[in-house]
Structure formats: structure tokens, C-alpha cells
Write a structure and sequence with these properties.
The protein is mainly beta. Helices cover 13% and strands 40% of the residues. The chain folds into 3 domains: 150 residues, Jelly Rolls (Sandwich); 133 residues, Sandwich (Jelly Rolls), CATH 2.60.120; 82 residues, no CATH class. The strands form 6 sheets. Strands 1, 2, 4, 8, 9, 11 and 12 form a 7-stranded mixed sheet that branches. A 5-stranded antiparallel sheet has the order 6-3-10-5-7, with no helix packed on it. Strands 18-17-20-15-23 form a 5-stranded antiparallel sheet.
Length: 400
């Protein structure tokens, strides 16, 4: 996704660690990576560790498996741009925000899950290519609500087939909703949609949200502008949501749409973020084939479904008043968004935010210097160089 600009105002109406590549006896696969950690009583951890795939040659993975011990909320396996693990990045590191040094080397997610154990075989003649000794990053999210120390282990296993048997490559998509606002002692919804550029087949799908989430639904719509009445998947258990099992053929031009429902009984507002106790998420991910080109797998054309009552002009005016540091900042591990922006986005009706974002993109690309300090220079640049986007924003209405 292109960087969202801050829209600076312009006048318009502790743990122990161990890495292992030896498969335990109850988890026997062709290649296994794992991470062990200790979580103190009452602690919540996001831990990341670089590991090396224990293979001497390129492999074609035809089945993914995982198993983790009690207490995990989710785990992810990232690809990296590393050939070897640097000495300064050995061991484990906090990676709660996604912008830490260890996360800077990630280059997309290869696999992930929120269930304690599962195996996902690919269809015949479909493979997932991985390099010899490929450096991967394991991320584990653990919570320990007990009064005792928790020793945990996360394992991912890969089973392989000869390259000559593979005719199509699989991919892993992960769609992350960066805009969530649940007011104190209230209920709310959030959702996004992501277009599909080519014909694909979904093998398995995974949902992810936190403890204030009461439901999550996933649809495959005929297009970005047409909606399907019936979801393909629905969950109501935030800790152990059922996975979606395909295969499901999804034609080019259609769109994934997913929404989460929340109830917040606390006396403080809740926003999008990584902490399961204090923030919320709404994520849909899945294995699919054949692998699509471009940046489909991260929903580069993100569209916000919109559940508020404010049109684009009002939302734009709202975000213009936000601190610059509150603007969305996309990191290798997720998205950081300040509370002011979250509230403004949540106020938008269907189509409102989709018209705000082009203004943000344009200002960021064409007026970064002029808007670095705000003021009249920013206003003049935005009006001159982003006039079409601004006009489209103020032309958008709710319900029409």
C-alpha cells in the first residue's frame, strides 16, 4: 500500500529463548522450525526470532502444519531478505509494534494460524517454494493470565514433494484492517474489502480478532461495488475461531470483504493495535493458489466498508485536525494509527474513507515539502496539485 500522509492541516471546507530445528517426536515433518519462550505470570508478549530452514536445497512445500502450547493467541512465519542471521539479531526480541529492527527484514508472511494445531495440505501439483537455508522470522503472541510461569513452544512444519511434481505455486494472503475504534461502554463495527486481480482458489482461511470481538464474517463479493448476501465464513470465538476450509474458487474482479463486531464494556475507548488486552484487530488471512502477481496478498487497494454517518468532506476535515504522528504508518509487521485518525475514520459512511485516502496519497507524494510545517504553503500545494482528489472527496455523499 502506498504511504498515507499525515494530512497536515490545510484550509478546506522478560523471557528466555531457544531456537531449534530438530523436530520433536510428536511433530514429525520434512522440515521443522520452532521457538521456545517463558512467559511470566500476568504477562503478554509479542516475541520474534530469526531461524534458518534446515534444508540444504530448495524445497517445494506441499503441506503446512503447526503446533503450539497453551497460551498463544497467534503465531506467524515471515519471509526475510536475509541470507544469514546477523550476530546482532540472534535470540529473541519484542516486536509488538512491527517497526522494531528485527522486523525491518521481513518480506511478507508465509504462514500463520490462531488454532493450537492444524495441518493444511495443498492440492495435488501445487507447491510453495522455499530456499535452501532460508532465513525466516517466527513471531509468537502469548498471554499468561495465570499465577504460574508458562513455558511455551511454537512449531511450524513443512512437508515436501519433488519439484517435477509441481505445476502451480501457492501464496499466503493477509488482509489487515488498520482502522478500528470502539467507544467506551459501546458497540461498534469495522471492516475492509480487498479486490482479487486474477482467478484463485482458496485452500484455507483464518480469522483474527481480540477479546472484545463478538463476531467476524467474511464474504466474497461479485465486485468491489457489489455485495454478496451470504458470508463464506463466520466465527464467534475470538480465542479459538474455526478455520475456513476450501477449496473455494474466487474469480478475478471479485472482492474479499470482512467485518468484525465489537462490544466494549470498559470505561476507556479501544483502538486497533497488537495488545489483546487493550486493543482490537480484524484480520483475514489464507492459503491460496495460483499465486497472484503484484501486492494483492497485502490488500494494497484497501477499501473501508464504513459504518458511520459522515461524508468524505467531514472525515477529511476531521483528520486535518489530528496530530501528524497519528496518521497511519505502515510497518513490516502491521499498521500504526493514532487515536485521532481512528475516530475520524470510524465516523465515515460507506465510501467516505475511500475518498479521503487518495487525498492523503496525493498530498504525501506531491506536497511533502510544502506540508512539512503546515500553513498556507500546504494549502496552496494541495489545492493546486491534488485538486481532483479534493473535489472528489467533497462531492461524495452518504447514501447516494
Amino acid at each position: 500500500m502506498r504511504k498515507l500522509y499525515a494530512l497536515i492541516p490545510f484550509a478546506l471546507a522478560a523471557c528466555s529463548s531457544e531456537a531449534s530445528t530438530s523436530p520433536p517426536g510428536d511433530f514429525d515433518h520434512d522440515a521443522v522450525i520452532s521457538m521456545s519462550l517463558t512467559i511470566k505470570p500476568g504477562e503478554e508478549l509479542h516475541r520474534c526470532q530469526l531461524v534458518t530452514l534446515p534444508t540444504d536445497s530448495e524445497i517445494q512445500v506441499v503441506s503446512f502444519s503447526h503446533k503450539y502450547t497453551t497460551g498463544s493467541h497467534h503465531f506467524l512465519v515471515f519471509a526475510t531478505d536475509l541470507e544469514t542471521i546477523p550476530a546482532e539479531l540472534t535470540g529473541q526480541y519484542d516486536c509488538v509494534n512491527g517497526d522494531e529492527p528485527i522486523m525491518e527484514h521481513t518480506r511478507g508472511i508465509l504462514y500463520g494460524a490462531q488454532s493450537p494445531a492444524a495441518t493444511f495440505p495443498l492440492p495435488p501439483k501445487v507447491g510453495f517454494k522455499m530456499k535452501a537455508h532460508q532465513v525466516l522470522l517466527l513471531q509468537a503472541h502469548y498471554l499468561n493470565p495465570t499465577q504460574s510461569e508458562l513455558t511455551a513452544t511454537v512449531r511450524a512444519g513443512f512437508d515436501t514433494a519433488p519439484a517435477a511434481e509441481i505445476q502451480q505455486q501457492a501464496g499466503f494472503m493477509i488482509f489487515y484492517n488498520p482502522f478500528i475504534f470502539v467507544p467506551a461502554q459501546s458497540s461498534a463495527k469495522s471492516g475492509i474489502r480487498c479486490s482479487v486481480p486474477s482467478d484463485i482458489n482458496v485452500i484455507a482461511g483464518f480469522t483474527h480478532y481480540h477479546q472484545r470481538g463478538t463476531a467476524m464474517r467474511v464474504w466474497v463479493d461479485p465486485s468491489m461495488s457489489q455485495q454478496s448476501a451470504s458470508p463464506i465464513h463466520e466465527t464467534h470465538d475470538w480465542e479459538h475461531p474455526a478455520d475456513f476450509h476450501g477449496p473455494l474458487a474466487v474469480p478475478a474482479g471479485s472482492a474479499f470483504r470482512f467485518e468484525c463486531d465489537y462490544t466494549n464494556s470498559d470505561t476507556s475507548d479501544v483502538f486497533q493495535g497488537p495488545n489483546a488486552a487493550t486493543s482490537e484487530m480484524c484480520v483475514f488471512a489464507g492459503l491460496y493458489y495460483p499465486q497472484a502477481k503484484g501486492d494483492f496478498e497485502t490488500c494494497a487497494d484497501l477499501s473501508v466498508t464504513g459504518h458511520g454517518d459522515q461524508a468524505c468532506g467531514s472525515v477529511l476535515s476531521c483528520v486535518q485536525k489530528c496530530p501528524g504522528e497519528d496518521a497511519p504508518r505502515f510497518t513490516p509487521g502491521g499498521v500504526l494509527v493514532g487515536p485521532c485518525w481512528e475516530k475520524c475514520v470510524a465516523s465515515g459512511c460507506a465510501g467516505a474513507v475511500d475518498n479521503v485516502l487518495p487525498v492523503s496519497f496525493c498530498v504525501g507524494e506531491k506536497c511533502a515539502t510544502e506540508c512539512g510545517g503546515g500553513g498556507d504553503g500546504c494549502t496552496a500545494c494541495a489545492t493546486t496539485k491534488c485538486g481532483a482528489q479534493v473535489s472528489a472527496c467533497f462531492a461524495q455523499t452518504c447514501g447516494g
